[in-house]
Amino acid sequence: MYSDEPTRVRQLVSEFLSGQSGALVGTDGLDVQLSAGADARDDCAVYDIGSPMSLVVGSDYIRGPKFILHEMGLLSDFDIGYYLAAANISDVAAMGATPIGLLSVIRYPHELDDAGFRQVMAGIHQACTDFGTLNVGGDIGNAERLILAGTALGVCPPGKVLRRHGARPGDLLCITGPCGLLGAAVAYFPKRESFAGRLPEAAEQRLLDSWKRPRARVAEGQLLSRKPYATACQDTSDGLKATVEQLMQAGGVGFRVVEQDVPIDPAVRAVAELMNVEPLALAMSASSDFQLAFTVAPDDLAACRESFTASGLDFHVIGEATEKEEAEAVHNGTSRPLPGVAWKHQKSDISLLAASSPDA
Amino acid sequence: MYSDEPTRVRQLVSEFLSGQSGALVGTDGLDVQLSAGADARDDCAVYDIGSPMSLVVGSDYIRGPKFILHEMGLLSDFDIGYYLAAANISDVAAMGATPIGLLSVIRYPHELDDAGFRQVMAGIHQACTDFGTLNVGGDIGNAERLILAGTALGVCPPGKVLRRHGARPGDLLCITGPCGLLGAAVAYFPKRESFAGRLPEAAEQRLLDSWKRPRARVAEGQLLSRKPYATACQDTSDGLKATVEQLMQAGGVGFRVVEQDVPIDPAVRAVAELMNVEPLALAMSASSDFQLAFTVAPDDLAACRESFTASGLDFHVIGEATEKEEAEAVHNGTSRPLPGVAWKHQKSDISLLAASSPDA
Fold first, then answer.
1. What positions does the entry give for Mg(2+) 2 binding (chains A, B) (predicted)?
2. What's domain A42-156's superfamily in CATH?
3. Which residues of A define the annotated binding site for Mg(2+)?
4. Among the residues of chain B, which ranges form H helices?
5. Do B151 and A57 touch (CB under 8 A)?
6. Which residues of A, range 249-288, sit inside 8 Å of B by Cβ?
7. Is the CB of residue A19 less than 8 Å away from at least one CB of chain B?
8. Which residues, including other chains, have CB under 8 Å from residue A329's CB and lie 6 or more apart?
């Protein structure tokens, strides 16, 4: 039997990981409580370590079936190092924590020369610097191909960690910026030839930049956590549709997304039009970008907006949480299931979306 | 240019990681100090997090060019899950810390069915249980081949973390048990046919068991840390020769190893004899087992021994630290460089050792 990943996580993994949240994990006079373990299904595990802060820790591997844009030469070794760090730090940011370090696993093939290896390290270093943290170690060695994984650590005042659960009906659903750029890049570039120069160079550059310098939303997560303004939060690294569905399942609420309020990047719109798919569907589909999706009580919206503005940050209200545990998109009074293809492992879903287009 | 891994770590990595130990890494009123970063080259990074304990964290990838015994069907999916957890927890144990959790990265190929996947998870779970900790999350998904990495976290009373540096001339060099079994297994099994049944079945079983149920020396590490008895400590996952050399470089001392005092497992001796290599050389060569190598001041030896015995644990004194930064083996008054092949990436060194034998 070959289940897909969500099934494996739900059925096979939970057999081993259930019930661990709340456990005392230290011994020997050292009091440590695992307040959110693997069974909590948040972006990170959370420890209360008897100090005036909680510890948040998560691991991400960043290369699945293909890191296609790197193989095509569109992303450099520096870029993928940068992405590795950003992807891991994003998980800490999504919990509202302040990053305190990154561990990196870098396994390289014989073909990667010293210059390339140095570039991977330099990219990791630059991202850590940009997000205010340090690469504190990990594992370096060879393998048949490039393998990159990381672990990010962060700290947060106790009780302030942002979780995926917590949204209440009536809370406003928000995102820190447009989603889908990274997914659009993966949909577009492998088929670039067939579009014969019809995507403007500036749009191509914008797609690539989304991969080259992704931004982990550390400052946004901290703002949302400290008051706290957010009742629930998660990064959009599985795409917006999957993220909304996960917030729904975690919180036992539904979501109504107002279609015209979802920001769509012009480059995503241009790719969608070229591929003859609906722009909103492409914007919500599998895309490993690092916006934060979060919920805010209506009464806190103005203060939250003010805090963001004061820090030069922004977010968009795109809908609200509802009683009934289902996610819908509304437009001119009619509703439908959320458009787009949610991320699942084992399938190149974004290609399915593109393949369903008459153009592809 | 294609440098080997030690060169890359020394020259390319240090460019980015030097000088970080001692840095304050928290912000936002959260006081966190990185007391040992990547530049310290210990088994783990160490944080002081303003609580009555230090945090110890390290990552290990467990499959380099080949996990040959698994590919040969000699190790099960359960076994490699178990090994992954043991390898990571060993790094925490080597610092004297109490493990508080493991994050695992499990990427699997399409060929790994649900039963196999479940076995990997079960092996990780069993090892975490055996070493008194929990698998608190990580990353699961697919890839072209099985990829396993982990991150272990541990806590230790402040100031009690065991480091690789710290040995002083005159300190006794000790190990918790015989080394080299895992390396001997990797040297033997791929060439098994050529030995035509000359290795007893019990020896074969012992070699395999060393891979199937490796023991992270958590209790030993705790004992060595709490007094502290050990002035320096590290696990032997690179093999005993490499470990002694690393303790030497970290501490700026030399080591004199008394050849007849190095315990050699009968199965390692049997493989060495079959392959016509020196048993001590095989015992000290690259082998990813998890004994602890440590140094103890002569005045503390009796008390340390007593503590170990009271806990049903054991260790062997195999030499002493010297003034001059060089490692030598002595036998009947004559000395020579440490025998064996120290572990380096990019080469299958243990095969080089075996290949130099007329039998192979």
1. 60, 91
2. PurM-like, N-terminal domain (3.30.1330.10)
3. 43, 59-60, 91, 139, 235, 238
4. 5-7, 14-17, 68-71, 77-94, 114-130, 181-188, 201-212, 218-226, 240-251, 266-275, 279-284, 301-310, 349-355
5. yes
6. none
7. no
8. A256, A257, A258, A259, A280, A335, A336, A337, A338, A339
What's the CATH architecture for B172-355?
Alpha-Beta Complex (3.90)
Check CB contact of B55 with chain A, cutoff 8 Å: yes
- Strand B98-108, strand B135-142: pairing: parallel
Cβ of B49 within 8 Å of Cβ of A53? The answer is yes
Q: Is A87 on the interface with B (CB under 8 A)?
A: no
Cβ distance B103 to A58 less than 8 Å, yes or no, reads yes
E strand or H helix that includes residue A88: helix A77-93
- In chain A, what is the straight-line distance between the N-terminal and C-terminal CA atoms, in Å? 32
Q: Going residue by residue through chain B (360 aa), what tens digit of pLDDT does each one get?
A: 777 766 766 666 666 777 778 877 766 566 678 878 878 777 778 887 777 778 999 988 887 446 889 989 999 999 999 999 999 999 999 999 999 899 999 988 888 888 888 899 999 999 999 999 888 888 888 888 888 999 999 988 888 999 999 999 999 999 999 999 999 999 999 999 999 889 999 999 999 999 999 999 999 999 999 999 999 999 999 999 999 999 999 999 999 999 999 999 999 999 999 999 999 999 999 999 999 999 999 999 999 999 999 999 999 999 999 999 999 999 999 999 999 987 654 333 333 343 333 222
In chain A, which residues have their Cβ closer than 8 Å to the Cβ of B122? 16
B68 close contact with A: CB closer than 8 A: no
Are A206 and A185 spatial neighbours (Cβ–Cβ below 8 Å)?
no
Q: Does domain B17-156 have CATH number 3.30.1330.10?
A: yes
Task: Tell me whether A330 touches chain B (CB under 8 Å).
Answer: no
Tokens representing B151 are 């991150």
The answer to whether A138 and A103 have CB atoms below 8 angstroms apart is yes
Q: Which amino acid is at A31?
A: D
How many angstroms separate the first and last alpha carbons of chain B? 32
Tell me whether residues B138 and A51 touch, CB distance under 8 A.
no
Residue among A20, A64, A121 whose CB faces B136 most closely: A20
Cα(A99)–Cα(B26) distance, integer angstroms = 7
The residues spanned by each domain of chain A are 42-156, 172-355
